[in-house]
Amino acid sequence: MTETTMHAPANGGASVTSGDNKPRPVTTLREWLDHLAARDRLAVIKPGTSLKFELAAIAKKLDGEKATLFPSPGGHAIPVLSGLVSDRQWIADAMGVNASELLARFQDAAANPLPWTEVTSAPVQEVVHRDVDLGKQLPLPVHNEHDNGEYITAGLCISRNPVTGVQNVSLHRLQVSGPNRLGVLLLPRHTHMFYEMAERAGQPLDVAIVVGVDPLTLLSSQAIAPIDFDELTIAGALHGAPLPVVKCVTSELRVPAEAEIVVEGRVLPKVRELEGPFGEFPQYYGERANRHVIEVTALTHRKDALFHTIVGGGLEHLLLGGIPREATLLAHLRRSFPNVRDVHLARGGVCRYHLYVQIAKRQEGEAKNIMMGAFAGHYDVKHVIVVDEDVDIHNPAEVEWAVSTRFQADRDLLIVPESQGSKLDPSTRNGVGAKMGMDATKPLDADEMKFKRIRVPGEDDVDVKKVIGAVPGSSWRKALNP
Ligand code: MN
Fold it and tell me: Residues 348, 306: one domain?
């Protein structure tokens, strides 16, 4: 894609009306399935896959290669989908940009959000159940070995600030505890703050759980946005058109009109019940503990609804958290450090805990300031490695090389003890742990040859097909004595 597109206003980027062959953003889930299918990235599994383990096992086996669609899972009328965004390139495709422009596009959308537009009738309300029995009405899978039963894992949780009325979007694991009851893990961010405000007033907090949305709306939900910043407005900017929303049937919340399924309910004040264990993104089980409880008030869905499930710890789970965080952390760091070139949340650090930062170094010591900025950007950031421009931060072996040859622990290491970290990191004490930063940049005053990376002239230009001769390796003797 061209420079023009990168710097175009959010609602004009990658527009469908440009009349050329530029790809445009995908705005609905069904359109996305067509897109995946056309590229042989959608596997339709044989009907009747068991909802207990078998569905997750198949989805995980195909993770990163193909999205999976399960017709009549466990005999249920509603099909299940998984692995919708399990590759970085796929996410770029959904935005209609090259992979190298992915973060810039997301940043642009976050900087130029587009307010949603309200509609009065919506596909997601074609069917309305006020007498809800989740276990009967939805195909609910069980994923990991020790999960405490059925979970809704791909539900965007929409809530509202009780004071300002501004909506928030977040993803939470939801344990199906009864026909109209869900256990929910609320980590200490925006939804939790709204809940505390409601609970102090003795009130429940209305929530809507939205299942089955397009990949860009899903991605938007994971932006590290300030409080009172409605993440659905990022989805609109990524689509290049305001997101159509509809009012819930039992609350004032507005939900994406084109979604597949909405579970309406309220988080009850002063109520906690046992939730967990559940297989989480760090590849460990989130522990069983007393957690918040949602009482379901209605279930609405399309006539031919699809149910999306995210298998805990899969690539979809990791990337959905990683990409929006990378984009928002990069923007956050650049406000103070314009010489930050790129950031990457490495897969080995579960796309949350290990941040690689590439900089054009101008000043000794600044790598440590950048580390502190990154720790402040999100509490999940645990280890930060800062490298120079000649290191590819998307290649873990390159980053390790920089650490092995440019880092000295007595001089380049920063440790901050007893800080807020991720409660899902089992090595923390209930979310309290250390931060570590490593400055793996070259000293500015170093002799040029000392840190000059070796290079064979012409290496990058070798055309292997042209230089390998006709004699096969097994006949090497013959090649020497023709
Ligand atoms: Mn938020």
Answer: no
